[in-house]
Structure prediction request, 254 residues.
Amino acid sequence: MRLRIFIKGVPFFILVRGMPSLLRNYREIRKQAKQYGMVFPFGKFYPCIEEKYQKSGTASGHYFHQDLLVANKIYINKPVKHVDIGSRIDGFVAHVASFRDIEVFDIRDMAEQIRNIHFKRLDIMDGNAVSHDYCDSISCLHALEHFGLGRYGDRVDYNGHLLGWENIYKMLKKGGKCYFSVPIGKQRIEFNAHRVFSVEYLVNVMIGSRYKIDSFSYVNDKGDLVSDAALDEGSVKNSFSLNYGCGIFELSKI
Prediction:
């Protein structure tokens, strides 16, 4: 059998390094297949040369850390009704749905019916769409920064994040928990992807006296989690010297 190999996207040095062992293993598996009667016949050639030189997985970055951290807090706090606004279905929402019910509101539709996930299509910037004192626990992870930028079919509104934030406040009962995360660094809009928030703006303008900050963690520019970081004046002022980090807040409504 003549073997033609074309592997798109694999660096040349990985091909040089991995090809001899790949061909050696291929000859061996073909030999063994004949001995066992070809119970599994060979389909297309599908080499994955680079993967044995990689780590077992990626345990870093904004989504990995925020999803795991906040899901664990919800598990510990055991709210009566938890609602999520726009977080990743295949990340955070799936984590929570593995151990409890979760209601999910998003401006985009979701056709699938998944156990423990109760979905409703809703524009959280629309104050008429939300109910006051609706839940005792709410999350909005890596979503608020998109509101009003048109990225997901929402209407363009320069203050879309504030409209959404106000409605989240209305939905949450007094004493309830709010978990939210957004990109942090030098404050800016990178249209139409997202906003990046300064920590000073988040603490003084958005949170202010309406919430008690129970904990603050952040993911740094390297993708590593810094848990229970102190919100001292200097760090707040310079946003922990981050360019594009992720601030993760656990709040209680006052």
Notes: The chain has two domains: 12-53, 62-253. The chain has a mean pLDDT of 94. The radius of gyration is 24 Å. The beta strands are 82-85, 102-106, 117-121, 135-141, 172-184, 188-190, 194-196, 211-219, 225-226, 245-253.
